[in-house]
Amino acid sequence: MNYFTKYGFPHKQKYSASKIFAVATSVLGAIAFASGCSQQTATNVVANSDSSSKTLTTKTTEKNNVIRLGYQKGGIIPIARQRGELERQLAKQNIKVEWSGPFDRCATLLSSLNGNRADIGGCGDIPSISGIAAGQPLCIGSVQRPSPDSLSSAILVRGDSPIRKPTDLVGKKVAVNQGGAGEYLLLKVLEKENIPSSKVQRVYLSPNDAAPALYQGSVDAWAVWEPYISIAELEHKARRITTTHPAPTYSIMVVRGDAAKENPVAVKVALTALSEDGEWLNQHTNAASDFLVKELKISDAVAKQVTKNRGPESYVFPNTEDIAKLQKTADWLLEQKIIPQRVDIATAVCPLETTAAR
Prior knowledge:
Oligomer: single chain
Strand order of the largest sheet: 2-1-3-10-4-11
Number of strands: 11
């Protein structure tokens, strides 16, 4: 049984309690006056109303003190879960952390956010923008800026494939995740090589299905990201035909829109703690590899290569330059008809009252 089969590893107006209490008090006072009720009776009723008000306030506070983190296998969030520092930090501020996952790819993670089963999740910029364009109530929390020399994405072929370079893909089948990082990588590589996209057949598969499709010969190549790359290279003798990405992508901490509006303090605290986890891991790369071994059940060699290929984990709140670059990507996706409508990135940034880079 191979790794992918065994582990399933694939890509209204609201009124405050105080206002309710004030209205209730006025109405009860009027009733007491009109009906000749005793002062004692009115006092008892108001006391009961005050008790209900406190209960409502307590429940609201409890809700706002919970943050749910959704994660894919191999990202910074599950590593933060293993390390435990994020939970300890948030507990000091009376914020409880709940975990949701693992999800096989961004599409299912975004569905979890959209379905109110998680509040924050880490994804690439392409699926995040695609989700927002599709009308999902999501916003951009923090970002990891692209690294031009990163090896965290690639187009892979089988070790015995005659395909040696991107131009050899003409007339071939390439597995990609629809509207995601894989499809974006393939299209950008073809654009750089002046190859019409119609000359290469895109086969839309999730990573869980794309891996066996490549190994068994159902597709000729696979556009994918880490940790799939290192698993394919070191455990299945796959070979990359691209090195760096022609248009490096952002990683994004995506936030459920209502969570950002209703619970901005907890969201911002969680995003900051995740950034600090990333900075700690950058200084302890061996620990980062060890966390991956535990999380993904992969070999130490694979984990070390994944860590090296990915490079530093550095999440920041987006500034105007980040917004402009993400807007350029979103406009390109619209031009390519990958997304159905234009996304205004500036308005898609979460209203956390901070857009300054750290």
